[in-house]
Design brief:
The chain contains 13 helices and 14 strands. It is α/β, with parallel strands linked by helices. The protein has 2 domains: about 240 residues, Aspartate Aminotransferase, domain 2, CATH 3.40.640.10; about 100 residues, Aspartate Aminotransferase, domain 1. Strands 2-10-9-8-5-3-4 form a 7-stranded mixed beta sheet, with helices on both faces. Bound molecules: pyridoxal-5'-phosphate. Pyridoxal-5'-phosphate binds next to α3.
């Protein structure tokens, strides 16, 4: 129990388990326009730019958007494109598809390069598309959280630079857990949110943008509250949000950034996530589960596993069983593939992974499976 509530261990892509001190930081009220909050906001914004290895001297700014990560993506998509622009979107999963849906909705001239959810995009195909037509922008999901694959960002960045395209990266589930240097890679806009590898609480997201990107957004905004240029302009002039900010969420994020520093920055956080993921792969393959991705494509963020091909297995039942023990896992998000996902980010440790795997083993045994599961035909014991 945590206070009066049962303990939860969240093996999801977010919201995640957060440190007690991060939650504690929210336990006060503060005015959104008072100098202390303005200072905190300035601190959080500049630390995020630093985490991306940039600074205002390199022409980079972080722009907070109230809401979940998709709100920040929608802000970018509704602000950054004029009718003269065209966008190439690399799609190998549900989040890449969401970018394409947004581009359609905002009537952005775009084309998608689609590939299988368990494969890296084919760089030759991307290159050929860029040779055929000039695209002003490329959009890529860094860690495709629907499968866990980490796409080849530096290769796509090289192509973006070669073909003079602005690069938009959805790094929602990777920023803070995988090091990304926006200056070196020439990323013009990186979108992330507080409640994933930064280990803050949900309610705010960020676009970390180059000056040249922001300048092209001027006058292109198609909504009032998600206008990226206006949001930055007012923040830079006044230090304040245009509309009510999630003050408590910002307080928590500042504490979460302190904790990231204390942990040893992104490098050591990445190491922790990697050891958790390695324990998970070991444990789950030990039970007989088959990961969706080949080892070289897996990430330390989240892993997908095929559901056993047996009527005796039901993800819903496993989910409910695990929930009664305080473990939360995630359903699959890959069309046509029966799988489920287990996240390895947030305030969890290797022992949590071992306990989760053990509980999954207990569930399978109680469901009548002989362990380890057999790869293809899973036999129910009598
Ligand atoms: C890669 C990626 N993009 C976008 C999103 C959407 O973020 P949100 O659910 O916070 O709107 C997620 C959420 O998990 C994600 O992993």
């Amino acid at each position: 129990m945590v206070g009066q509530f049962p303990k939860r261990r969240l093996f999801t892509p977010g919201p995640l388990n957060t440190a007690a001190t991060t939650k504690q930081a929210m336990m006060r009220d503060i005015g959104s326009r008072e100098p202390e909050f303005v200072d905190i906001l300035r601190d959080v914004r500049s630390r995020l730019v630093e985490l991306a290895h940039a600074s205002p001297n390199d022409g980079y700014y972080s722009i907070p958007i109230q809401g979940s990560g998709t709100f920040a993506l929608e802000s970018v998509f509704s602000s950054a494109f004029s009718p003269k622009n065209s966008l190439l979107i690399v799609v190998n999963g549900a989040y890449g598809r969401r970018l394409a849906d947004m581009a359609t909705l905002w009537a952005i001239d775009h084309m998608t390069i689609e590939c299988a959810s368990d494969e890296f995009p084919d760089l030759e195909v991307v290159k050929r598309a860029l040779q055929k037509k000039h695209f002003s922008h490329i959009a890529l999901v860094h860690c495709e959280t629907s499968s866990g694959i980490v796409n080849p960002l530096s290769d796509i960045a090289r192509l973006a630079s070669e073909f003079g395209c602005r690069l938009i990266v959805d790094a929602m589930s990777s920023f803070g857990g995988i090091d990304i240097n926006v200056v070196e890679l020439g990323i013009d806009c990186l979108v992330t949110s507080a409640n994933k590898c930064l280990e803050g609480v949900p309610g705010i997201a960020f676009a970390i943008c180059s000056n040249r990107f922001i300048n092209t957004c001027r006058g292109n905004g198609r909504t009032v509250c998600l206008d990226l240029y206006q949001q930055l302009d007012v923040l830079e002039q006044t230090g304040e949000f245009r509309f009510t900010p999630p003050t408590h969420v910002v307080l928590a994020l500042q504490k979460a950034l302190d904790r990231l520093d204390e942990e040893g920055g992104i490098t050591l956080r990445h190491e922790r996530y990697r050891s958790c993921a390695a324990k998970l792969w070991n444990g789950m393959t030990g039970l007989g589960f088959r990961p969706l991705l080949a080892p070289q494509r897996r990430s330390c963020i989240i892993s997908a596993f095929h559901c056993p091909a047996s009527d005796a297995f039901s993800f819903r039942r496993m989910y409910s069983h695990l929930l009664t023990k305080g473990f939360v896992v995630y359903a699959g998000k890959t069309p046509g593939v029966d799988c489920f996902r287990i996240g390895t980010i947030g305030q969890i440790a290797e022992e949590d992974i071992l306990e989760l795997v053990n509980e999954i083993g207990c569930f399978l045994s109680a469901a009548g499976f002989t362990l380890p599961l057999r790869p293809t035909e899973l036999v129910q014991s009598g």
